[in-house]
Description:
alpha+beta; Rec A Protein, domain 2; 3 domains; two-stranded antiparallel sheet; 5 strands; rod-shaped; Zinc ribbon domain-containing protein; transmembrane helix
Amino acid sequence: MDNITIFIVLLPALVSGAASAIIASQKGRDGLGWFFVGVFFVPIAIPFALVASPMRSNIESLKTCNYCKELVNHKAVKCPHCQSELKSYSEKYSEPEKDQAEKSENQTSARDKVLAKAEELGFDVDAPEGSSRIVFKKNGKKHEFLILKRAQDFLERQ
Length: 158
């Protein structure tokens, strides 16, 4: 065999090995092992590397891009696939907690307002703390509500 024939046979094998190793290592798999798979199984190594699933331990360190839905490193600020800006871990999980705290605070203040208005109108109020149940009693009639808005609407009609 002359040098050109060896080059024609070895070049695709080395390219296939390198491509398989790069693809597999991005998925948390053994790059060296996949290099040899790529060298010895040229026509099928790259497709197998592409469909190989990421390692479970590597999945935990990945997050999904909100725009292109590709997996990226959890520390990434910019998606390598679509170049969009990514929210950091702390931003992603602190905002809902803040929103929840504000929402709970607003509901508490709205509930207090409804209870105060009911007392102004002469109702006996039974509203256990931590419960959404509100009971208004007046003139022997009992009005029970589980939804704050309905209690509010009832008081506006009085």
